[in-house]
Amino acid sequence: MDEQKKTAQPEQQPEHPEKKLSRKTLTFYIVGLFSVAIALILISYVAQSRADKQLENLSTKLSEQQTVAQGATQKMEDLQKQLDDMSAEIAAAKQSLGVDAKDSLAESVQKLRSREQLLELLVSAEEAARADDWERLSLLLDGFVDAWSADDLKPAAQGGLFDEQDYLAYQNLVKLNSEKNR
Question: Which end of the chain is more exposed for a tag (fewer CB within 10 A), N or C?
Fold first, then answer.
């Protein structure tokens, strides 16, 4: 029996160290797995915090760009309002000067100069009529016909250079001149 015990003991002893070895191995694997899990959690946390920071930076940049875009839109609206106001002022000035809206600025200036010359000649003709200088009146009225077309010697309502009162004065001078030259 002693032999059997001896033979039985060595058989039992190798089984027991294997159990210890498997427990150590299992514990090592479990600790290793937990270490890997903790490492993965830490990596995930670091990646998430970096993503949050990038998202915050992008959100800030987007807010800044929206602010800039709103400022640009507001400035564009202000400039459009100024343009509309100036256009209205120009239209009012053209209307008060008797200039058609379709005329260019150069044409408008030329028309105003021509009207100024026409009125100066009209004043000279009226002075000649008051002074009973019929020869000078006749020459000045011929100057009207020579310098301007028949369309220009009409009232502004008909496309001419005269306003209503000046046109009536011109017509009276022509009538007076034709009566004196008979």
Answer: C
What's this model's pTM, rounded to 2 decimal places? Answer: 0.44
| Distant-in-sequence, close-in-space partners of 91: CB < 8 Å, separation ≥ 6 | 101
* Residue 47 confidence (pLDDT): 96
pLDDT of amino acid 41: 97
181 neighbors 141 (Cβ within 8 angstroms): no
Whether the CA torsion 176, 177, 178, 182 is positive or negative: it is positive
Low-confidence ranges of the chain (pLDDT < 70): 1-20, 98-103, 182
Question: Tokens 């089984």 map to which residue?
Answer: 15
Q: What residue type is 56 in one-letter code? A: E
Say what the alpha-carbon torsion angle 129, 133, 135, 138 is, to the nearest 10 degrees: -10
CA distance 105 to 83: 17
Q: Are 170 and 122 contacting, i.e. CB atoms less than 8 angstroms apart?
A: yes
